[in-house]
Amino acid sequence: PPPPPPLPRIYKPCFVCQDKSSGYHYGVSACEGCKGFFRRSIQKNMVYTCHRDKNCIINKVTRNRCQYCRLQKCFEVGMSKESVRNDRNKKKKDVPKPECSESYIVTPEVEELIEKVRKAHQETFPALCQLGKYTTKNSSEQRVSLDIDLWDKFSELSTKCIIKTVEFAKQLPGFTTLTIADQITLLKAACLDILDLEQPDRVDKLQEPLLEALKVYVRKRRPNRPHMFPKMLMKITDLRSISAKAAAG
Asked: Which keywords belong to this entry (predicted)?
């Protein structure tokens, strides 16, 4: 009889975030996400900033929240800069650089998810609220009245935006299957970065396909701007940090 097929190799969890490892990359057992993050960071000489105490916890749920601490964790567990550079030089010699290094196929499932999110956003945010045009070429009394009116308009707009955010979230696939407490926490996090979930793993599972759909959508729409999606994630992290500072102050 033919010999049995070899058993699949089992790797230790990712040394950086403890997610499922895809093999040994740049000297350590790592998942695809941390491998790609480390490679991009080294190849592009990225400089990140930690908005806390440079000691953020890095795991598969929190790994996208602080790129500075994630990169430091990569170095701490033994990832090698030289391995990235050698790998890049080897690819340059062996393979001609294609116009687009990655090709993204939109599967029916991803297409359906993108359409659901697009429809939810279109139905809840049909148009930007108009604050109106204000001038300050008036007397001081009129300007005071104008400022109060503008503040009232801003307060009204903020309330409407919160209501619309709730309506939008309820239409996202899987959101209403979460516990009420986690739904409320996520809605608060959208404004104040208050995040203390009851079931973080479940939220992470819902978040992953949405992030993947966003990545595919952005890279299909902007094939000549491969760094647009990582930059969007960086901006989201920056916005969270700003909102956390505002909540703390």
From this structure: DNA-binding, Metal-binding, Nucleus, Receptor, Transcription, Transcription regulation, Zinc, Zinc-finger
Phi, psi at 30, each rounded to 5°: -150, 155
Q: How many domains does the chain have?
A: 2
Strands (E), the chain: 23-25, 28-30
- Single-letter residue type at 145: S
State the CATH number of the domain containing residue 75: 3.30.50.10
240 contacts 97 by C-beta, under 8 angstroms? no
Q: Is the pTM of this model over 0.85?
A: no
pLDDT in tens, 192-208: 544 456 676 777 777 77
Highest mean pLDDT among 54-63, 107-116, 171-180, 195-204: 54-63
- Decide if 183 contacts 176 (C-beta within 8 A): yes
Report the interhelical angle of 32-43 vs 67-77 (nearest 10°): 100
